[in-house]
Amino acid sequence: MSPRSERSPLLADRPRTSEDSTRRAEEEDAALHGVPVPLSPRRSAREVILFTWALLATAGVIVLAVVLQHRNSTSDTTPSPPPPPIAPGDPSAGGPYLSSKRPKRNLIFMVSDGMGPASLSLTRSFRQFTASLPADDVLTLDRHFWGTSRTRSTNSLVTDSAAGATAFSCGHKSYNGAISMLPGHKPCGTVLEAAKRKGFATGLVVTTDVTDATPACFAAHVDWRMQMDEIALQEVGVGPLGRSVDLILGGGRCHFLGNGTRGSCRADDVDVVRVAREKFGWGFKGDRAGFDELRMGKNVSLPMLGLFADADVPFEIDRRNMADVYPSLSEMAATALTALEKATRDSDKGFFLMIEGSRIDHAGHFNDPAAQVREVLEYDKTFKTVLDFLEKSDTEGVLVATSDHETGGLATAWQAPNELPVYNWHPSVLAKANASAEYCAFLLHQHIAAAPVESERSLIDWINAELVVARLGITDALEAELSALATNPAAANPIFSRMVSTRARIGWSTHGHSAVDVNIYSSGGKAAEKIRGNVENTDVGRFLSEYLDVDVDEITRELEDKFQGREVVELKSEGVAEVSGHPVEWLRDARI
Ligand SMILES: *[C@@H]1O[C@H](CO)[C@@H](O)[C@H](O)[C@H]1NC(C)=O
Ligand SMILES: *[C@@H]1O[C@H](CO)[C@@H](O)[C@H](O)[C@H]1NC(C)=O
Ligand SMILES: *[C@@H]1O[C@H](CO)[C@@H](O)[C@H](O)[C@H]1NC(C)=O
Ligand SMILES: [Zn+2]
């Protein structure tokens, strides 16, 4: 074990940001060019394929995050108003239920990362089409519409997931990239930490890396979201507050393995799984077989760390064909609900669980509507799973679900250049696709790596037959599209996405986020009245700690003490430029 693992990561000798980013960029570069990644002989052929794919899959999203970050840190943004003050004596802050001793209660908070209102319309119509349902059939989410949330951050009208999740976890606005840090790099206590302190059980369930911005904001405090090596350590308990999380289920295993281990994406050699086990008593499950041992939550002893993918769990459209390798969001959520309920059976406190449909956002970044509708359907199913749980549970509880922001500027209409508008869009196109653009791009890279001397003609024919027709269900590909794929495979993901989108007449205005208000959904009840209507994302955050009657300010004061004298990580624009240089070009190339 390295000396570093013995120390608080907050006080570690050097910030790791740029090192991490450079290393990541090299891996992404290799993946984007189809260079095989060296792998452990212990892995099965299938895992090798999935692992390489996972690297490739993550590349685009991380790249986009870095690009956004770069813009935010280098351009002058309009000075923004300070975050709304939270007056301790504000009568609107407490509500009648603050005064008396609360009965036991559970709070489930769901985040649909990157899901805007258009995603609901898209998915509702898709479902009606594929399941032959009437025009008035709606999603479970639609029946629990509660209000809308305004999402801007302190330094931009367009938030990123980190500032978005900080608004939920701390109840304060912050700068893009902040992991439960406020402007001025001051830490803020989170609802999960305050809940744990008060005796609640706590859990995080996601489909991306568990070190990604949304889950990180509930259980870590770092200056920038890219500091994932630090985040992993803090999440298991190596941090200012010790261990706050009882159950973590998701992807991102690579951040928990030391750099000497195959499949690691850490810059250092800290074996976080070992630290978690030995110092904090975590149980660990690292694959689908391990997940099955949890027996849907009936065989879980806390704390339990379950990491079921090297990075992202595949998009649902692909995962359902690999269900023997990866659990779904709804399976992980059901497991967490059962485990946390069981763990709090004899407690007078309940639990706080955050569940994120993480990859709705990724489908938005990639502009892939076929992948997105299946992500939203799985999220809707998970929402129903939670509602059913609350219905059956003897303990009082509330479900609140919202998004941190919209991604992609999705529109359920698209006017082709030089054509008149068409008043329609076509779910049938999305229904025919049975793989994501991301997976098709992975298959293309794999094919090129296996047959590097193929002629362009033969490559084009293979792409058309095996990917475009067989996987995307597109039978009228243009020669220009196929040749763009053959000559610029690095841009395959956005090219495939565009082929699907234009045929379905689905529009996108960006590969990044947008500022549109997002929806809030809830199981309802009197307590949730406070976030009815059009509210600020911080109102949602404050609701969470008020509902549990926990004090995040007390945690903030403790963190401020413990963070005194620490090194603050500032983004160096050169360091970021180094990372974003290639990807920016890649994005430009993506527009055929
Ligand atoms: C692995 O981490 C150690 C420090 O923990 C570092 O000295 C070494 O250079 C790293 N190796 C690689 C290949 O990154
Ligand atoms: C229950 O969990 C334990 C510890 O993780 C494991 O050894 C055991 O095999 C599990 N039982 C079942 C029936 O899966
Ligand atoms: C995808 O669809 C094609 C035809 O549209 C079919 O040949 C192929 O087997 C399907 N693959 C899966 C995994 O369903
Ligand atoms: Zn987000």
Automatic annotation (TrEMBL):
Residues binding Mg(2+): D113, D212, T214, E356
Source species, domain of life: Eukaryota
Record's compositionally biased regions (Pro residues): 79-88
Gene3D superfamilies to which the protein is assigned, alphabetical: 1.10.60.40, Alkaline Phosphatase, subunit A
Enzyme Commission number, as recorded: 3.1.3.1
Cofactor detail note: Binds 2 Zn(2+) ions. Binds 1 Mg(2+) ion.
Classification via Pfam families: Alk_phosphatase
Disordered: region residues: 1-38, 73-98
Bias-annotated ranges (Basic and acidic residues): 1-26
Membrane-crossing residue ranges in chain numbering: 48-68
InterPro entries: Alkaline_phosphatase (IPR001952), Alkaline_phosphatase_AS (IPR018299), Alkaline_phosphatase_core_sf (IPR017850)
GO MF term set: alkaline phosphatase activity; metal ion binding
Active site: S161 (phosphoserine intermediate)
Similarity annotation: Belongs to the alkaline phosphatase family.
Protein name: Alkaline phosphatase
Originating species: Parachaetomium inaequale
